[in-house]
Amino acid sequence: MSFKKQHQQAFELLSKVFLYGWIVTICILAAYGLLYLLAGVVGDGPLSSILVYYGTPVLAVVLLLLVGNFYVYHGFGSQADIYRRGSEEEKKVALTFDDGPNPTYTPAILEILRRYGVPATFFLLGSQVDAYPELPERMVSEGHEVGIHSYDHLNLTSLSTPALSSQIFQTIVAILNAGGKYPRFLRPPRGLYNAQLRRLAELLGLRIVLWSLSSEDWMPGKSPEAVVNRILNRVQPGDILLFHDGGGLINGAKNNRKHTVQALPQIIEGLEAAGYEIVPLTELLDKASPEVECPGEVVFSQDF
After folding, report:
1. Which one of the listed residues 144, 149, 244, 259 is annotated catalytic?
2. Which DSSP state fits 157?
3. Which helix (H) or strand (E) holds 104?
4. Is residue 244 among the annotated active site residues?
5. Residue 65 belongs to what H/E stretch?
6. CATH fold of 82-284, please?
């Protein structure tokens, strides 16, 4: 390996460490400062000490989650080639599903989509495609789009260039072997991306697509009613709606997506009753533009 390449890799690693460290440090200092002020209001005594000592790490974590949520939906500055929503000119939305295909829930979702005659985009895990190749083939034959979600649902920003390339290339090959077309879209797990992933996506002709409204169906204990209400109460023209037909942070591919299946018919009916047209992701992004470049950043998400 050349000295120039070693220097570049070392610089990228230090940049990541600096970025993560800076964000964590700011959140810790902010949490400590807020609790210190609150302790002053409470007054001297054991309660104020407990508040600062134990409350600081808890509040710091909460602040980190809030920063992460803001980052994935808005970014700090703007990001080139990152799509979070479609054009707001028309009442159109797109349904997207992550972490599949799953042998139990994906067929049920496909049947609902067929019954209502609406399209969707599925961001697939290559490992799941290799395990259930008939499902991506069915998606394509029924008019749905497929995109890349990685091969093993890893944090792509933490991978070396060869490992990152392997995650993307293996998934492309899996999709093609299953009878799918060359994918046009890439959604990294948890919405995490960096400059390296963006360069690879551009090289492969892939558009990085996140989302503007999450159903939060990945959250444990989320009821179908809660999923329905979250979408129908918050939807806006141009939204890219995020659901999951497989996967999960805790139980992996075995995670229960029954509530997503139960909520989907009500969501489709509610969107159509409100005058929304459910369109393919390609159509939704037809009039959308990527954002102005802000190089080198890492973006976080709270969705799994």
Report:
1. 244
2. G
3. none
4. yes
5. helix 46-74
6. TIM Barrel (3.20.20)
